[in-house]
Amino acid sequence: MKEPDANTNPPVDGSELIRFEDVTKRFGSNTVLDRLNFSVDSGKHVTLIGPSGSGKTTILRMLMTLTKPDEGTVTVDGEKLFPAPEKQLREVRKKIGMVFQQFNLFPNMSVLRNITEAPVTVLGMSKDEAEARARELLDLVGLADKAGARPTQLSGGQQQRVAIARALAMRPRVMLLDEVTSALDPELVAGVLDVLRDIARTTDITMLCVTHEMNFARDISDQVLMFDSGRIIESGPPEKIFSDPAQDRTREFLSAVL
Amino acid sequence: MTWDWNAVSDFMPQFWDGLLVTLQALALGSLISFALGLVWALLMRAPSRFVRWPVGVVTEFVRNTPLLVQLFFLFYVLPEWGVTLSALATGVIGIGLHYSTYTMQVYRAGIEAVPPGQWEAATALNLPRVRTWQVVILPQAIRRVVPALGNYVISMLKDTPMLMVITVLEMLGEARLFAQEHFQFTEPLTVIGVAFIVISYLASLLLRSLERRLVR
User: Fold this and answer.
1) DSSP one-letter code for B159
2) Pairwise CB contact (< 8 Å): A100 & B128
């Protein structure tokens, strides 16, 4: 089977990029996703909100192929993810970048090498080109002077900004943001969110964002999905969800976190 | 019983020969145990149990039988199968193989101690499996296990006298030979005892500096 080439078929903004169909995931007797259906169009920014354990992170992990559904299908850019041969998964992963709650930088590498490693090994970029690009990205996230530092020498907020640069270096079409500010000291949150706002505004990258930062969600989202017990109980534009939710459960949740 | 300095100086030429052999056995045995232990540890993580199972059985067997028996086996049985090695080579292989079944467990612990987030980040960046091991997992795992590996080097040093039984003239072998020729036991045995302490101490200093450099 021939893979469609992302370069010869440029994504049409607004076309469907991600689709979950009847996806169920259980951990033991606990059903974290319960016959879930939703889709995300290319270029959209979608925020997933809801109480802990409602399955939001599992969705991102599934898209990153870190976990498999028990039932149902997940499709990215027309390609079914599970089951799929490793080769096909690698093609899909090329389109997706992920930023983790705990940053997950490689502590044995410099900041610069964290960012250049994958572009060089996976994309076959030359070292010089990758480094030039990495420096641009470090500049974008406000860490131009930290290229030679080790991740452990940086604050949590700085580490997370490096992780964002690292994900961007792979030129993903989709960015998955998994509670990227939850592990940060409060005063470091704003710096990271500003960088993400910037990216949301200036690029056409599709974003799926799990967050408890409701102001941020309101700012960047085209659509908000409210989760409870593994299902989407309400979805809509942020203005609607945040000011006039249809569900009592949503209202209850928002009043607890706002 | 009196201490005879002349016996000490008479023993010296043989002592240096023995010291050299001991250090060779230790260095090569360490290298083999470090390399082979890593191979075992990686094979034990193979997806197929047809790989894991035999490796598990063999290493369990080697770990739970005495080194002395293994040395005899390698020295007397291998030639019957047409494999002829020098006594020192046989000893080095024996000690390296024996200790590799311990270092494999050290590596395993080190690999398991690398946080799952590191694997996930490597997957998210689409790094190939082999590359993930090379540049992400093993550098972090090995850094963690240097102190534990170092302890096995010291253990191995203390097991090198066993090579005497397969005719390797390491320090104890030389001391015994000297003692039998001159009927003087105290001096050569004391000298090699001191030598063992000095080597252990120097090795531990070396390891500590290595640790400091690796753990940053």
Assistant:
1) H
2) no
The C-alpha atoms of residue B185 and residue A169 are separated, in whole angstroms, by 70
Report the C-alpha gap between A204 and A140 in whole angstroms: 16
Q: Which of A207, A209, A140, A139 is nearest to A174 (CA)?
A: A207
CATH class, range B21-170: mainly alpha
> Residue A119's closest chain B neighbor by CA?
B125
Q: Does A107 touch chain B (CB under 8 A)?
A: yes
SS3 A199: helix
Say if the Cβ atoms of B124 and A167 lie within 8 Å.
yes
Contact A162, A111 (CB under 8 A): yes
Q: For A204-228, what is each residue's pLDDT tens digit? A: 899 999 998 888 888 889 999 999 8
Calculate the dihedral angle through the C-alpha atoms of A174, A179, A181, A186, rounding to the nearest 10 degrees.
Answer: 150
State pLDDT tens for residues A167-203.
999 999 999 999 988 888 888 888 888 888 888 888 8
Phi, psi for A238 (deg, rounded to 5): -60, -35
Instruction: Please answer yes or no on whether A108 and B140 come within 8 Å at the CB atom.
Output: yes
CB contact under 8 A, A100 and B121: yes
- Nearest Cα to A206, choosing from A182, A190, A222? A222
Domain boundaries, given as residue ranges, for chain B: 21-170
A55: distance to nearest CA of chain B, Å? 18
Per-residue burial over A220-248, b = 16 or more CB atoms within 10 Å of its CB, e = otherwise: bbbbbbbbbebbbbbbbebeebbeebeee
Q: What is the largest CA-CA distance in chain B?
A: 73
* Alpha carbons A81 and A86: distance in angstroms, whole number: 10
Q: Give the Cα separation of A210 and A55 in Å (integer).
A: 10
